[in-house]
Design brief:
This protein is mainly α. It has one domain: Leucine-rich Repeat Variant (Alpha Horseshoe).
Length: 224
């Protein structure tokens, strides 16, 4: 038995022990940021299939979500690229869902990125997505419904600690947005931590209460 171990040890020392993986050339000295930039290159590569670019957007979001404030600041550079994909005509529900997931990670608890996305007209895109036909001829209905569920979640993300954004959804979306959310709130939200369509409706109702309260105070002060 001892001779067998000796032979194995000798083979290991000869063939494996001194082998080294080639060093990874980092784009950024912070490895987390290196990965974001690497996926950013893929996201911006027009020669790649759109599915691969959307997957890169998803990974950027995941890395941002786990990478902290500096990662969120770096990822803000790619918000416009993600918006550009969302604006492309005839893009599948699956591709758009990947990009929406990426934006969720980028905007999560980042007030700056939430506002950056708002300036890039994300709100108008989300409202348009909610208004889409759920039984399209050229796409899987399940993909469209899944996409709309992620729209609801992204809405709650960008409105987190961001009252101006919530107010904008309330004013621009109006009753049409409420009807869309009410319809989606009746769906099964299995595997989700909660029903984000219901949560968004609650946030809109809260904003409406604030608006009515301020209006009432203004009327009282004008009468005094």
């Amino acid at each position: 038995m001892g001779s067998k171990f000796s032979k194995i040890a000798a083979w290991y020392n000869k063939h494996i022990k001194h082998e080294r993986e080639p060093a990874i050339k980092l784009i950024d000295p912070v490895f987390h940021h290196h990965k974001i930039k690497t996926y950013g290159i893929e996201l911006r590569d027009p020669e790649l299939p759109l599915e691969d670019r959307a997957t890169a957007a998803l990974y950027i979001g995941l890395l941002t979500y786990t990478g902290g404030v500096n990662a969120a600041l770096l990822a803000s550079e790619y918000i416009q690229d993600m918006i550009n994909i969302l604006l492309m005509p005839d893009t599948s529900g699956e591709v758009r869902t990947y990009v929406l997931k990426g934006l969720c990670g980028i905007c999560y608890l980042s007030y700056l990125n939430q506002n950056e996305a708002k300036d890039r007209h994300l709100m108008e895109i989300l409202l348009a997505y909610l208004d889409e036909d759920e039984n399209p001829e050229d796409d899987d209905p399940l993909d469209i419904i899944t996409m709309k569920l992620w729209v609801c979640y992204l809405m709650t993300v960008v409105c987190c600690n961001n009252i101006p954004y919530l107010r904008l959804f309330n004013e621009v979306g109006g009753q049409k947005l409420r009807k869309s959310l009410e319809s989606l709130s009746k769906l099964e939200w299995f595997s989700w931590p909660q029903n984000y369509a219901k949560l968004m409706l609650a946030l809109l109702a809260y904003q409406e209460q604030i608006k009515e309260s301020l209006t009432g105070r203004a009327k009282k002060s004008s009468l005094q």
